[in-house]
TrEMBL record:
It comes from the Bacteria. CDD domains: AdoMet_MTases (cd02440). The chain crosses the membrane at residues 12-31, 51-70, 82-101, 113-134, 155-175, 187-208, 236-254, 260-283, 290-308, 320-338, 350-373, 398-418, 425-442, 448-468. This is Spermidine synthase. Keywords: Membrane, Polyamine biosynthesis, Transmembrane, Transmembrane helix. NCBIfam families: MFS_SpdSyn.
Length: 742
């Protein structure tokens, strides 16, 4: 029980309301600051994953340092000294307001910008973010000495903190971003931060009043409480590390292997935050048995369908199964974490270990996994790890639990390595794996047995899928999973023909027919019957000496429109795409059609800044597929940059085929506001030609006369862009994905 005295005077407001509200606002500000400042950086550094990874590591590291500061402050100093130091920090942090990029910020143009980015983050938001990160553990520790009847277990206030995080997560894309530009966001956030500092000071006064009758020495020491053992702290570390890694792994997996949908990453993070709210709430003890019982039951269905036989499910049902299994796994881990929370004397140590584990999870998924795995294998690994962390690991004869799974592994490996015609047995083996998934439920009370058997099933499942697939090359980088696949299609004479395809996750980025007659034929979105083919055909008489820039390389199909005296530059953000497209073992568009094409690796907008003005005859923008929409390439400032690099009669071609977003609305608004001329074609092939697909293109010029050839073309139906109403213009200060959702 808490031995602290009752407050010396009655507070005007309940300490619970005061501290909970402060924690709620603090978490809200933290989760708003991260995407807001990311958007501020976007035009300077572009949309490379390395930028986001660096930002996330910075945030996680600063969060850990904030928790370390709170632990040091509350465990080493008395109440008066704590308040003095923290008040000085609050006042000092206000000098960083309003949140903004430092004056004359410009990343280095001839080297790695990582150190510049970290320094910029520190100067711009380092102090405010650090203060916000200290709030959760420090205020909960102060509340534990408030004398309130619930102060002997202040952990339920963590639910208020995560509720604020959840509100900010859902509010930013759906409420804040659509209605406020970055300039106003920065000012409002700065005002909110000043309000938070005031609330923290009120909490400090409440804490000081509750300690007024004690001497200002180590008032928080309780010699009767045993400190948590090293083994218990390692268990906290594991219970926090696995959900953190599982969150990032699932997010990567669903965008790579299920559906590349914009903002889909919000759903796993929402569930992740919801688990913290539930396990630290007053309902936790009633919820916990249901979660423990539901996890192995859902696991059976999840493994049988989502891993062993995912083709039988529509993608939305497969997605639901993954999210449900993830939610239950994280609920069990966080439930055990909350159940093992220590006495409030060691509260800050508990949160320090949690934050350290979260940072390790982020570092593992961001910097380790992409270099040791060629696919998102950390996701199934963490599914197994979450099962091993179920309660009862050492119950009974724990060393006997993995005997059955290990026998299954030995038998499976024997069949795997001794059967010459393994493909004849795939259906039989698949059925056996489904049967084993059902049997796994019988091991629900044996964490080791359940985890090992699930690991064995996943091992064979992933191996069989790899053997049965047509993937001939696969590699993973910061930018995701890139794969080259061979697919069999019927040709014009209905004979089977092998086609080489390039995939980034689930999105196809190019294809090439391998027959001699068709090996240099551009396919998919770049076919000759399609809009880009029509553009080259209509301007065939004047484009012999054009200087052409293409943003986005893919398999290199555009290179086969090259003429002898043309100069081509490809701008590609992912070095692996360049490596694959230039390797004749995979694709031969570049080697056959344009060996001299210049490859410029990096963010296109930053790369184009270095080009001479009025130097291009044609710019092709091809970087807007699936969920990977680099919004900074679609702003008004970006369009003005493109036209500054084009000659007066130059053309700007946008490939805007997208399953989820109506990008034509953004371009239509720019064309109207900048007094440009534009034509659009939503192409649908009239004949069943292999790999000639439906695709949407927009061509923009300074004068309508320049587009007259396309408008009068008999090759395709070009039309003016539709009028837009109520769409706020996209600028470097304002973009809004939800506003153009189809």
């Amino acid at each position: 029980m808490n031995n602290t005295p009752q407050p010396t005077a009655k507070s005007l407001i309940s300490p619970v309301i005061l501290f909970a509200a402060t924690l709620f606002i603090s978490a809200t500000l933290m989760f708003v600051l991260q995407p807001m400042f990311g958007k501020l950086l976007l035009p300077l550094l572009g949309g490379t994953p390395a930028v986001w990874n660096t930002c996330m590591v910075f945030y996680q590291t600063l969060l850990f340092l904030g928790y370390l500061y709170a632990h040091w402050l509350s465990s080493r100093l008395g109440s008066q000294r704590q308040i003095q130091i923290h008040t000085a920090l609050l006042v000092f942090s206000v000098i960083a307001l309003p949140v903004a990029l430092p004056p004359n910020s410009a990343p280095p143009t001839d080297g790695d910008p990582t150190l510049w980015l970290v320094w910029t983050l520190f100067l711009a938001i380092g102090l405010p973010f650090f203060v916000v990160s200290t709030t959760a553990p420090l205020l909960q520790k102060w509340f534990s000495h408030s004398g309130h009847h619930s102060s002997d277990d202040p952990y339920y206030l963590y639910a208020a903190s995560n509720a604020g995080s959840l509100l900010a997560l859902l509010s930013y894309p759906f409420l804040i971003e659509p209605n406020l530009g970055l300039a106003n966001q920065r000012l409002i956030w700065s005002g909110g931060y000043i309000g938070l500092c005031a609330l923290i000071l009120v909490c400090a006064i409440s804490f000081w009043r509750s300690q007024a009758d004690k001497e200002d020495e180590d008032v928080l020491t309780d010699a009767g409480i045993e400190p948590p053992s090293t083994l218990e702290q390692l268990r906290w570390l594991a219970l926090a590390f696995v959900p953190s890694s599982l969150l990032l792994g699932l997010t990567q997996f669903i965008s790579t292997d299920i559906a590349a949908v914009p903002l889909l990453w919000i759903v796993p993070l929402t569930l992740y935050l919801l688990t913290f709210i539930l396990v630290f709430s007053t309902w936790a003890d009633r919820i916990r048995p249901w979660m423990l019982a539901a996890q192995p039951a859902v696991l059976t269905v999840f493994i049988a369908y989502s891993f062993i036989n995912p083709a039988t499910l529509p993608y939305w049902l497969d997605l639901i199964l993954h999210l449900l299994a993830f939610f239950l796994a994280v609920m069990v881990c966080h439930g055990e974490l909350a159940k093992s929370r220590p006495h409030p004397q060691y509260l800050t140590r508990f949160y320090l270990v949690m934050s350290f584990a979260g940072m390790l999870g982020g570092l593992f998924n961001t910097f380790v996994a992409p270099f040791i795995f060629n696919a998102v294998y950390e996701y199934p690994i963490m599914i197994v790890a979450a099962l091993l962390l179920r309660p009862g690991f050492f119950n009974g004869k724990w060393f006997l639990q993995p005997i059955f799974p290990l026998l299954v592994l030995i038998v499976g490996l024997t069949i795997y390595f001794t059967t010459e015609q393994l493909f004849d047995y795939l259906d039989l083996i698949g059925g056996a794996l489904i049967l084993l998934a059902g049997l796994s439920y019988s091991l629900r009370h044996s964490p080791i047995g359940l985890g090992v058997l699930t690991g064995v099933i996943l091992l064979f499942t992933l191996g069989l899928h790899s053997m049965a697939s047509n993937t001939i090359y696969q590699k993973r980088t910061f930018f995701g999973v890139m794969s080259v696949r061979d697919t069999i299609i019927p040709d014009e004479n209905q004979r089977p023909e092998t086609v080489r395809e390039l995939y980034h996750g689930t999105t196809k980025h190019g294809a090439q027919r391998l027959t001699a007659a068709n090996v240099t034929t551009p396919l998919t979105y770049y076919s000759r019957p399609g809009p880009i083919g029509q553009l080259f055909a209509e301007f065939d008489g004047e484009n012999q000496h054009w200087h052409i820039g293409a943003v986005g390389l893919g398999a290199g199909a555009l290179a086969c429109y090259t003429k002898e005296d043309q100069l081509w530059k490809f701008y590609e953000i992912d070095p692996l795409v360049v490596e694959v497209a230039q390797n004749p073992a995979w694709f031969t568009y570049l080697s056959r059609c344009n060996k001299q094409a210049e490859m410029i690796v990096g963010d296109a907008r930053q790369s184009l800044l270095k080009e001479a003005d009025a130097s291009f005859d044609l710019l092709i923008m091809d970087a807007f597929s699936s969920d990977a929409v680099p919004t900074h390439l679609l702003t008004r400032e970006a369009l003005q940059l493109y036209f500054s690099k084009l000659k007066d009669n130059g053309l700007l071609a946008f490939h805007i085929t997208n399953r989820h977003l109506a990008l034509k609305k953004v371009l239509a608004d720019h064309v109207n506001e900048l007094h440009l001329a534009a034509l659009m074609q939503e192409f649908k092939p009239e004949t069943d030609v292999p790999l000639v697909v439906a695709t949407d293109w927009v061509v923009i010029a300074k004068q309508p006369e320049r587009l007259q050839r396309l408008q009068q073309s008999r090759l395709g139906h070009w039309q003016k862009l539709p009028l837009t109403f109520g769409l706020q213009p996209w600028t470097d200060d304002f973009t809004h994905i939800i506003g153009i959702w189809k």
